[in-house]
Amino acid sequence: MTWAAAPGAVAGETGRQVGGRRMAGITVKQFDAPDDTTDFIHGRAAGVVVGDDEQVWRSELEPGWSWDEEIKPYTDGLEACPLYHREFVIAGRIRYLMTDGTETIAEPGQLLFIEPGHRAWVEGNSTCVLLDW
């Protein structure tokens, strides 16, 4: 395979042009040194900022974790999550219930796109580990 330099790039130079500045092409972060954390009664989440302020979260949600008990009390009375999520399940299982009654149980290896209007809870007796961005 032959790789060509991006338009405007100088051969052998790394990065990309952004707002007149040359930016490095790789950002490295670790969840064991997060930019933000959230502790739940039944778990925790570690967040890192990558790119242009995009956050990626690694959550470890223990059996008993539910949106209704751990998140809803802080939403000023919302009945469902108002956010979009892209999630990848690493371990355990998590159940999602949409306001229209649609329901799914996500398992390891599954990638999900979840629209606003959902609630969730850990399914079973194993900790659910997932990436959310």
Task: Give the structure's gist in a few sentences.
This protein is mostly beta strands and 133 residues long. The chain has one helix at residues 67-70, and strands spanning 16-18, 21-23, 36-40, 43-50, 54-61, 85-91, 93-98, 103-106, 111-114, 118-123, 128-132.
Percentage beta strand: 35-45%
Shape: globular
CATH hierarchy: architecture? Sandwich
- Report the count of strand segments: 11
Total helices: the number is 1
CATH superfamily: Jelly Rolls
Can you write the helix and strand succession as a string? EEEEEHEEEEEE
Rg over alpha carbons: 19 Å
Task: Write up what this structure looks like.
The chain has one helix spanning 67-70, and strands spanning 16-18, 21-23, 36-40, 43-50, 54-61, 85-91, 93-98, 103-106, 111-114, 118-123, 128-132. With 133 residues, the protein is mostly beta strands. The protein has one domain: Jelly Rolls (Sandwich), CATH 2.60.120. The chain has a six-stranded antiparallel sheet with strand order 3-4-5-11-6-9, with no helix packed on it. Strands 8-7-10 form a three-stranded antiparallel sheet, with no helix packed on it. A hairpin with a 2-residue loop joins strand 1 (16-18) and strand 2. It is globular, with a radius of gyration of 19 Å.
